[in-house]
Amino acid sequence: MNETTIHGNLTANPVVHTNPQTGKTATTFDLAVNSRWYDRGRGHYVDRPPLFHRVVCFGDLAGNAAASLKKGMTVTVTGSFADDSYTPQGTDKPIRRIRLEAADVAVSLRWAVAAVARKTTPADPGQHTPQAGTAAAADTADAAVQAAGGQDSQPAPEPEPAPATRPATRRAPRPQPAPEPVAA
Length: 184
Hints:
Blueprint: E1 4-10, E2 15-18, E3 25-33, E4 36-39, E5 44-47, E6 51-58, H1 59-68, E7 74-83, E8 98-107, H2 135-148
Parallel strand pairs: 6-8
Antiparallel strand pairs: 1-3, 1-7, 2-3, 3-6, 4-5, 7-8
C-alpha cells in the first residue's frame, strides 16, 4: 500500500456525512498545502501556489476529526490516495479527481496548544466519554483546551522557571599570569 503524508491548513470546518442505509459516518475536509523555495539569485523565498487536497476519514477517526478540527488548523494527514472520479449525467466525459483516505490525522502544535482526551472503549464500563462528533464531545474538547491554556490561536503562557536547587559553591580564584616586564 502506498502511504502519503501531507501537512497543511484546513480551508473550512469538516463536514460529516452519514449513510442513511448503514448509519456509518464519514468526515471530509479540504487541506491547503503551502510550499516555498529559496531563490539564491534574488536572495529571498518564493512562494509556490497552494495545492488543495480533499481528505476523507471513516469510522472512529471520522467522529474524532469532526469533534476536534476547525477551519484554519494546521494538521498532518497520513493515508493513501484513492480515485474519486465520476461521469456526470448527460455527458460521456469523466471528471477526474483523487482524494486522500486518511489513516491518521494529527494536529500541529507549532502554534497551538492541545489537550488530549482518550476515548474509552465499550469494554471499559467504568468511564463514560461523550460520543465523538456530538455537541457533548465538542464541549469536552473545548473545556480540555481551555484547561491546557487557551485556544489553538493563542500561545500558552510561559511556565515560571524552577528555582535553583543546587547551592552556590565557592571556587578558589584562578591564578593570574604575572605581567610581562616592559623593555626599556
